[in-house]
Amino acid sequence: METNQHSFFCKAKEGTHVLSTGNLYRIIAEGKRTENNFSLMEVTLESGQGAPLHIHTKEYEAFFILEGEVTFNLENVDFFAKKEDFVSCAPNEIRGFKNNSNTRARMLLFYSSAGVEEMTLRNGMIIKEGVKPSIKNEYKTQCPILSKEYGIKEL
Length: 155
Known about the structure:
Blueprint: E1 16-20, E2 23-29, E3 39-45, E4 50-56, E5 60-67, E6 69-74, E7 77-82, E8 86-89, E9 94-98, E10 105-112, H1 116-123, E11 125-127, H2 144-149, E12 152-154
Antiparallel strand pairs: 1-2, 1-11, 2-3, 3-10, 4-9, 4-12, 5-8, 5-10, 6-7, 6-9
């Protein structure tokens, strides 16, 4: 629910649900609603899913684990994150993550400044909330053309 140009609410399960790079995203806060200051997404990772090593050149990226376990590689250092752990990555740092467990993981993705959510929308497919898409256990990168446009370097 929008209250004015700068304030809004997003209830549980609301937002735009997108299947992109084998991961299921829920866009909670888009840059167009935050004057591009930040964006917030929830991602659900099945076993074996994640993002290979890459660099964001434009924005800070932060992760908050809601459920499950995720292995991060930050500047070639592994960090095993579990429920309620937090990870922050500055621009131009190498990062990647993967659900190496046998159970699903969910985490919040925070970006400052916004923009990555637009790339996720452009690269993915919008689905209805509650629909269980067929997700393969893939470890895929974004479209190389979109990655370059949004300042993300795949390694």
